[in-house]
Amino acid sequence: MCAASSSGSDRKAGAALRRRGLRHFTLAVLLVGVLAAGCAQPDRTESVTGDWHGTIEAPGAPVEIGVNFAADGTATLFIPQQGIADVGLGEVNTDHDGISFVVPGLPGDPTFRGSYDRGSGRITGDFTQAGQTFPLVLRRGKVDGSARPQEPKPPFPYTAEEVAYRNGDITIAGTLTEPPGEGPFPAIVMITGSGRQDRNEEIVGHKPFLLLADTLTRAGYAVLRTDDRGVGGTTGVLDTATYSDLAADIAAGVGFLRARPSIDPARIGLFGHSEGGFLAPLVAARPDSGVAFAILMAGPGVPGADVLVEQARTITTSEGASPDQVDTAARQTSELVAALQVGDLAGAKALARQHNESTPPEERVPDDQVDAAITPYFAALAAYDPAPALTGLRIPVLALFGGTDVQVPPAQSAQPMREHLAAGPDATVHVFAGINHLMQPSDTGRPSEYASIETTIAPEVLDYVLDWLRPRFPTT
């Protein structure tokens, strides 16, 4: 679950994020204010087709970018440190008059204008956004990828099988990893955070679910991770889905595992991150769920509307907004979620447009993007109260929070989580100091730092999960 921004022109994008309240829009925030890149064919005698790389020299925050110029005159942008690849550029011009392009659909009209220097073999120019201009020099070659030292690499000491199963008309696609041997193995179904996530829950170049699946499978647990509706091999449309629909998708995964001879049907658990921590108890609390345990990582303990309003405060504060800006963000978010809670999508769209229009013109988000953010799915998130499902759990539950998390702040959710789980037979709630929403080490918790932190999940978090699981659901 998310909403975020940094400063300057980023602040409007952050407001758009707060309106959408979805974790995957963190990418949009990180994109604004760090974009740029090149083009093709400076004059008609020498081609610039191919890969180029350079640095947008923003003071105190340089950003490495890459551009590929195709032979057909198109160009694409890459920002590895943010996990951004193949973003199409617009108005690409590469003739003898110069090289230029725009990054379409973003606040501040991001634009590059420059020229090719045959002597140095470089493209030199300026990147401009929201009235600010930064020098950008592009050189031949691909941009280096960001370091992600924890990302698992083959060969793996376990099997990984591409699987698919049905939930009514929906086909759900994913990867099932199983330890060596015949089993039957205890198993875990992974549940992603909000927004359209792939099976690895990939964000800004990190793949936390790939790392978790690798860690758990090496420890002897089978792990099923899947693409969300409308992502990868999974069919359907997330924006029109209700929480009942998404809970049914998760239950279908449990049923799929229970039918496999290699899986112990009595030891299947759920692992939910962020919004996945909302959905996991919703499934597990059902008497016929067949769920043996639940692990909630940064899962909220309060209603979605409360989370979104508090996010507006904590994220804008962490990114350096003034007290007046923080209050405005919280007020606007509160107005928006109030409409969503009663299912007034038209009213919510009108409010979102009104808030958008109150910002400087160069910082506004296109109206179609504002409207596209207000969906039945977003309304379900805003209206959901986790208390009934959490209080109904009668299985072992582990709830983890990051001490610096500004998306699901532990100051808001940890104590309610303890109270909701108090009647259960085995509940553990733990807050890690110096850990953010993605479970990375972080002093500030700012979403704008996710991409620059090399660690995908802090080792102490991975160890804690295994130490909790092993005595309760041993693998041997």
Give keywords.
476 residues, alpha/beta, nine-stranded antiparallel β-sheet, eight-stranded mixed β-sheet, 13 helices, 17 strands, globular, disordered N terminus
- Cα(first) to Cα(last) distance is 36 Å
Strand order of the largest sheet: 4-3-2-1-9-8-7-6-5
Average pLDDT taken over every residue: 87
Counted beta strands: 17
Number of continuous helical runs: 13
Kindly name the structural category: alpha/beta
Shape: globular
Please summarize the sheet with the most strands. 9 strands, antiparallel
Q: In terms of per-residue confidence, which ranges show pLDDT below 50 for 5 or more consecutive residues?
A: 2-45
Strand content: 15-25%
Describe the protein in words.
This protein has 476 residues and is α/β, with parallel strands linked by helices. Helix content is 31%, strand content 24%. It contains 13 helices and 17 strands. It has helices spanning 10-20, 26-31, 208-218, 243-258, 276-284, 304-318, 323-341, 345-357, 367-373, 376-383, 387-391, 410-421, 459-472; strands spanning 50-56, 63-69, 75-79, 84-88, 90-93, 99-102, 111-117, 122-129, 132-140, 159-167, 170-178, 185-191, 222-226, 263-273, 293-297, 397-402, 427-432. The strands form 2 sheets. A 9-stranded antiparallel beta sheet has the order 4-3-2-1-9-8-7-6-5, with no helix packed on it. The chain has an 8-stranded mixed beta sheet with strand order 10-11-13-12-14-15-16-17, sandwiched between helices. A hairpin with a 2-residue loop joins strand 10 (159-167) and strand 11 (170-178). The longest helix is centred in the C-terminal third of the chain and has 19 residues, at 323-341. Residues 2-45 have low confidence and may be disordered.
